[in-house]
Amino acid sequence: MTRASLSAAPKTVRVDLGDRSYDILIGPGLIATAAGEIAGRLKGRRMAVITDEHVAPLYLEPLMASLKEKGIEAVSLVLPAGEKTKSFEHLIPVCEAILGARIERNDAVIALGGGVIGDLTGFAAGIARRGSRFIQIPTSLLAQVDSSVGGKTGINSPHGKNLIGVFHQPDLVLADTDVLDTLSPREFRAGYAEVAKYGLIDKPDFFAWLEKNWQAVFAGGEARIEAIAISCQAKADVVAADERENGRRALLNLGHTFGHALEAATQYDGRRLVHGEGVAIGMVLAHQFSARMNLASPDDATRVETHLKAVGLPTRMNDIPGTLPPAEKLMDAIAQDKKVKGGKLTFILTRGIGQSFVADDVPANEVLRFLEEKHPG
Amino acid sequence: MTRASLSAAPKTVRVDLGDRSYDILIGPGLIATAAGEIAGRLKGRRMAVITDEHVAPLYLEPLMASLKEKGIEAVSLVLPAGEKTKSFEHLIPVCEAILGARIERNDAVIALGGGVIGDLTGFAAGIARRGSRFIQIPTSLLAQVDSSVGGKTGINSPHGKNLIGVFHQPDLVLADTDVLDTLSPREFRAGYAEVAKYGLIDKPDFFAWLEKNWQAVFAGGEARIEAIAISCQAKADVVAADERENGRRALLNLGHTFGHALEAATQYDGRRLVHGEGVAIGMVLAHQFSARMNLASPDDATRVETHLKAVGLPTRMNDIPGTLPPAEKLMDAIAQDKKVKGGKLTFILTRGIGQSFVADDVPANEVLRFLEEKHPG
Ligand SMILES: NC(=O)c1ccc[n+]([C@@H]2O[C@H](COP(=O)([O-])OP(=O)(O)OC[C@H]3O[C@@H](n4cnc5c(N)ncnc54)[C@H](O)[C@@H]3O)[C@@H](O)[C@H]2O)c1
Ligand SMILES: NC(=O)c1ccc[n+]([C@@H]2O[C@H](COP(=O)([O-])OP(=O)(O)OC[C@H]3O[C@@H](n4cnc5c(N)ncnc54)[C@H](O)[C@@H]3O)[C@@H](O)[C@H]2O)c1
Ligand SMILES: [Zn+2]
Ligand SMILES: [Zn+2]
C-alpha cells in the first residue's frame, strides 16, 4: 500500500490462468492508447465495440479513432444504460452484431462500459461462434475492480440475477482511471463498496488503509490507481486459485447473497438501489449476522458500517427508498440464489475484519429470524 | 466389426475427457431403465426434461414414469419439432423452465429427442447457472451417432447455422436403439449419412462393411447396435483427442461445409432438406471436388455416391426439390461458415475412401467454379 509509483506507465496485474492468462492494465489515458495495447497482443483487425448510451457520448469516439488509426476496422452498438439491459432482449442484437461484423478467430469483441455492458458483452462473446475473443474496457469503478476481472459473464432472469451466462475470460482488460471522473458520485461509491470488500475478505491492513485514505481514492491520482490495482490483484489471485467458483472464489460473494436479494426486491431498479449499494448493505448484514451467530465481535460490524456510512453508502435496509417486501419474500430470493446446495444455505460469514469464510450449512430459519429483526414488517 | 454381442446389456463407449469423462450406453430398452442408469451416476433428485412434439407422445411418459419410480422429481417441456426450434425464441423458455425447476448442482437437464432438442437443451444447460448437469437421450439415429456426443451445443442465427452456442459436455448419454423404429425412413437415412461419414473420414473397412451390411443396419438388431457403437467410438476418439475443434476434430465436418450451405439455401426447411441429407450431398461434393483438385480418384467419388444413393439418400444438388439459389449465393453461405480463417477457406478434402484431411487454404474461386459446374443456373 505504501509503494506509490509516479510513472505514466500503467500498472499491470496478470491474471494467471495457464494458456488463458491475460493482463489488466490500470492507469490514466488508456482509452486513447487502447488500440496500441490491443494491436500489440491480438492479430485480428476486426472488432465489434458494445457500449451504452451514457458511455458512448463520452468515450466511444476516442476509442474508435484509436482503433482506426491502428488499422482496426470496428463497428459499434450502443445499448440503453442500466441493469435491465442484462437480458435476452439485448443479448440477441449483440450476438447478431458480432456475427454480422464477421468477427473471426483473432478478432475481438470489446465491451466499453460498466459491469452491465461487460457482463452482457462477455456473455455474447462467449457464445458467438462458441467463443470469440473479448476485451474489457471497464469504465465504472465497480467494473474496473470487480466485474471485468475473472470471466464471469451473464444476464438476469425473472428467476434471479446473473442466473444465465458462461465463464469466458477476456484476452485483455484496460482500466482507464481517468474515465472515473465522469462517473456519478453515487456510482463511484457503489464501486467503492467492492474495493472495501477485498479488505473485508482477507486484507485487514488494506481495510485500515482505506479507512484513512478513502478521500484520496475518491479524489483521483495515485491513491485511486493504487486502490484499483490492489483490488484487481486480490480478485486475480482468487480467480487464478479457483476459476470456477467451487471453493475460495465464493469468498468474493461476501455481502452478495443479501445484496442480490435486495436488488431482486427492488426489481433491479437502479433509482432505488444499484449493485454496489446492495453489496454495502449486504456486507454490513453479513457482519451483523456473523456477530449474532457468535462468530465475530459486534464491534467489527460497527466498524464496517461506520466506514461505509462515512463514504456515503447505504448500510441498512431502511436506507433504501420505497417499501421493501417482508423478510419472507427476501428469503425466497436468497433460496433461489446460485449459492444454494441441496436445500441448505451457503453464506459468506466472517470471524472479524479480513477474516471471511464460506459457511456451508447456514440454517435458513436463523437467517429469516435475523432479517425479520432487521426489517420488521 | 466382426465382434457381435448377443447379450442384453447395453454396449458402453467411454468419452475420455479427464474429470469430465462420461459414458454412452447403446442398446435396446434404455428409456424404460433410464432412471436406474441416472440414479446410479448422479446424486440429484430433480430433473427437467426437454423434448419435442413428435417424441413426447411416444417416449415422454415411459421416461417420466421411470424417473418417478426412482424418486426423481421431474418437470417436462414439449417444444415444436424441427430445425427452427434451434433459436433464441425457444432457448429462452427452456432456460426459464430449468431455472423454474430449481435444478441445482447435482440435478440435471435431460434432452429427449433428436439433434435439435439435444443442441438446444445442451446450450440451455450450458448457460443456466453458468453450467448445469446434462443428460442426452438421443432418439434419432443422427443424434445417437453424432450430435449427442462431444459437447457441441447451440442454436442457429440469421447469419448461419450453429453460430451461437457453447461447449458443454453431457454427464451421460443413453442411446435406446429401439426408439429408432418409430423414426421415419427418411430421418433414419439422414442419420445414416453420418454413420457412413465415419467410414469416409478414416475407416475404409467400416465403409466397406456398411456397403455390404447396410440393409441389416436399417432392419435393426445387432448390426444396428454395432454400427452405432462404432460411430460413437469414432466420434468419442476424435473428441477426446481434440475437444475444442482446433485440429483433428474438424474432420468431423466432412461434407458439412457444402451441407450447411445447402441447408441455408433451403432456409432450413426440413420438407426440402434435412441435415443428414445435406451432409450426404456434401460428402459426395467433397469427394468430387477432391477428385477435381487431383487429390483423389474420381472412382472414389462414384463409389461414395453409389452407396449413398443405394440407401436412398440424395447425392446431388438437383435431388433437392425446389429451386436452389445460384452458385454465388451458396458461396456466401460457405464464406460465413465457422470454418473461415482470415478470409481463406478451410475444407475437409480427401485422398480417397477413409483418407480425409483438413485443407486450410482452399481457393474460394475454385470452389465457386466447381459449384457453378455442378449447379448451372
Ligand atoms: N461479472 C462479474 O464478475 C461481476 C461482478 C460484480 C458485478 N457485476 C455486475 O456488474 C453490474 C454493475 O456494474 P456497474 O455498477 O458498472 O453498472 P453499470 O454498467 O450499469 O454502470 C453504472 C452507470 O454508470 C454509467 N457509466 C459507466 N461508466 C461511466 C463513466 N465513465 N462515466 C459516466 N457514466 C458511466 C453507466 O452508463 C450506468 O448508467 C451488475 O449487473 C452486476 O451484476 C458482475
Ligand atoms: N451438436 C452436434 O455436434 C451436432 C452434430 C450433428 C448434427 N447436429 C444438429 O442436429 C440437428 C439434426 O438432428 P436430427 O436429425 O435428429 O433432427 P431433429 O431433432 O429435428 O429430429 C428429426 C425428426 O425426427 C423426429 N424424431 C426424433 N426421434 C424420433 C423417434 N424416435 N421417433 C419418431 N420421430 C422422432 C423429430 O421430432 C424430428 O421431427 C441439426 O440441427 C444439426 O445441426 C448437431
Ligand atoms: Zn459485486
Ligand atoms: Zn452433421
TrEMBL record, chains A, B:
The entry assigns this protein to a family as follows: Belongs to the sugar phosphate cyclases superfamily. Dehydroquinate synthase family.
Recorded hits in Gene3D superfamilies, A to Z, give: 3.40.50.1970, Dehydroquinate synthase-like - alpha domain
Please list the residues that bind NAD(+). Answer: 115-119, 139-140, 152, 161
> What role is this protein assigned?
Catalyzes the conversion of 3-deoxy-D-arabino-heptulosonate 7-phosphate (DAHP) to dehydroquinate (DHQ).
What cofactor does this chain's UniProt record say it requires?
A: NAD(+); Co(2+); Zn(2+)
Which BP terms does GO give this entry? amino acid biosynthetic process; aromatic amino acid family biosynthetic process; chorismate biosynthetic process
What are the residue boundaries of the 3-dehydroquinate synthase N-terminal domain, all occurrences included? 77-189
The record's comment on cofactor binding reads: Binds 1 divalent metal cation per subunit. Can use either Co(2+) or Zn(2+).
Record bears the keyword Cell cycle: no
Chief localisation class: cytoplasm
**GO MF annotation list:** 3-dehydroquinate synthase activity; metal ion binding; nucleotide binding
Pathway assignment reads: Metabolic intermediate biosynthesis; chorismate biosynthesis; chorismate from D-erythrose 4-phosphate and phosphoenolpyruvate: step 2/7
The protein's matches in InterPro entries, at most eight in alphabetical order, are given as: Dehydroquinate_synthase, DHQ_synth_AroB, DHQ_synth_fam, DHQS/DOIS_N, DHQS_C
- By its UniProt entry, which Pfam families does this protein fall under? DHQ_synthase, DHQS_C
Residues given in the record as Zn(2+) binding sites? 194, 256, 275
Species of the source = Pararhizobium polonicum
Its cellular-component GO annotations read:
cytoplasm
Q: What is this protein called?
A: 3-dehydroquinate synthase
Kindly list the places in or outside the cell where this protein is found, as annotated in its UniProt entry.
Cytoplasm
